[in-house]
């Protein structure tokens, strides 16, 4: 006789869940809440990244437009000067020299007013001490009337825009006799 116990034909299968401790429902709820928060933060990140890209593109377009149309007001105001010069050239041949001079002076005055309106400052350094930062010495000339280093003659006036030099004044500087 057989001393082994009788076996049923059914095998005993171990339940893997039975070996592991069961997680309490609170931990499952906490993990779900943390996953939802992580998903929400990821969504916020994606939206913020997209918004930043839109801001960057909008700023680039604005800068491009600013470069493209920066001189629009200035050019529009200069059109009046251009019109004045065209009218002077379209006048009859029997115009007097005095009226041409008056028209030229009026046109120059109009041009100066446009430059002033846009903060373009004229630099006319006649009689001032020579300053290499804003003057360009074309030559030196001995002088008994002016102190050495003083501007005697201005060949070409200089101009500055909002305090920044556009063109130096071209000058003759006095030297010792």
Give a structural overview.
A hairpin with a 2-residue loop joins strand 4 and strand 5 (164-167). The strands form 2 sheets. A 3-stranded antiparallel β-sheet has the order 1-4-5. Strands 2-6-3 form a 3-stranded mixed β-sheet, with no helix packed on it. Helix content is 50%, strand content 19%. The chain has 177 residues and is an alpha+beta fold.
CATH topology value of the domain at 120-177? Nucleotide Exchange Factor Grpe, Chain A, domain 2
Q: If strands are numbered along the chain, what order do they take across the biggest sheet?
A: 1-4-5
Query: SS-based structural class?
Result: alpha+beta
CATH architecture level-2 label of the domain at 120-177: Roll
Q: Work out the radius of gyration.
A: 43 Å
Give the helix tally: 4
pLDDT averaged residue by residue:
86
CATH homologous superfamily designation of the domain at 120-177? Head domain of nucleotide exchange factor GrpE
CATH class of the domain at 120-177: Mainly Beta
Low-pLDDT stretches are none
Outline: elongated
Q: How large a portion of the residues is in β-strands, by DSSP E? A: 15-25%
Helix proportion: 40-55%
Total beta strand runs: 6
Q: How far from one another are the termini?
A: 146 Å
Major β-sheet annotation: 3 strands, antiparallel
SSE string, helix = H, strand = E? HHHHEEEEEE
